[in-house]
Amino acid sequence: QVQLVESGGGLVQAGDSLSLSCAASERTFVRYAMGWFRQAPGKEREFVAAINWNGGSTYYADSVKGRFTIARDNARNTVYLQVNSLKPEDTAVYYCAAQPERGTFYSGSYYLPSRYNYWGQGTQVTVSS
Fold first, then answer.
1. Strand pairing of 46-51 and 32-39?
2. pLDDT in tens, 25-64
3. For residues 16 and 98, what is the distance between their CA atoms, to the nearest angstrom?
């Protein structure tokens, strides 16, 4: 069982930045690919970014490319999401998620919420205009 705890959300103005973190309880953190998703009120959960076990492969939703950066520190069992140039439409609860590192991750499972086995409780990001 992997427990994930997000932190770093908050209320910011458009154009500001935030650093989101997700700490994992699992000492075999390196065996998991990680993803960030978000869910706005009344909308479905959507993919934001994903990273493979060693950080060598990263993936982003088109809406955040060039503004968000995903990274991980396996020594600290933590995955990060640096969010820059925030827009009001980025307002959502941000979740991190883990799935066992496997080949299907690279062929597209990275953006499917159903392929992730473990989820955090989420952290709220609110961007005012």
1. antiparallel
2. 988 899 999 999 999 999 999 999 999 999 999 999 999 9
3. 27
